[in-house]
Hints:
Layout: E1 15-18, E2 34-43, E3 49-58, H1 61-74, E4 76-78, E5 80-81, E6 87-88, E7 90-99, E8 102-105, E9 116-120, E10 131-139, E11 145-150, H2 157-167, E12 175-176, E13 182-183, E14 185-195, H3 196-207
Parallel strand pairs: 9-14
Antiparallel strand pairs: 1-4, 2-3, 2-7, 5-6, 7-8, 10-11, 10-14, 12-13
Amino acid sequence: MLFLILAAQNITLPVLRVGSLKPDFAAQMNEGGYAATKVKLVISPEGVPVRCDVMFSNGPQANGEALCATLRREARYSPAGDENGKPIAGVTFVWSQWKQGKWLGAAAPDWDPVEVGLQVNKIPPGFHEMQTFHLRLVVDPTGTVKRCEVEEARLSAQAQQLLCHEVNRENIPPALDENGKAIDAVRPVRVRLTSEAYDKKLMRKLRGY
């Protein structure tokens, strides 16, 4: 499978241009007085949110649904761009957290899990176990990675090639449009790198032997 890596980051994710990520509704808290939700937005090549799915809810599901409604109604984006600078559909994730009814912001919490765990035979020089990286992918309707770029530009070209090679082996769900049809899109993916030996050790620990 062919995919490209360039030294510069040429594919771009959607960027909020109009509107705010701050909710305009009163969120419902869980029994502990806390709430959090994560939604996934698909942004059209025109910069319009065409689909919003609730990915996580700590507290009432209605918070995520209300956040989706607000973003689809009010948010407008500079669209994602492919390697040629052409506008393309893009995926972005939006968090919201509340405590005792007060909005805590849109930043992803520390416990936000990675989307893909990459396992290699041996951790290569310059990497360490459980290290995380941010990738930008162009994924086609079949889930094939057409292009992969690594945000951590400090990494060597060889290290970036390794990450992209490994993520290309994974099943990356394609973006869906408003009709549920799979489409080409730029999407962010956060990955964690571990070795086979580390994962085996972790499983033994979890099983108690």
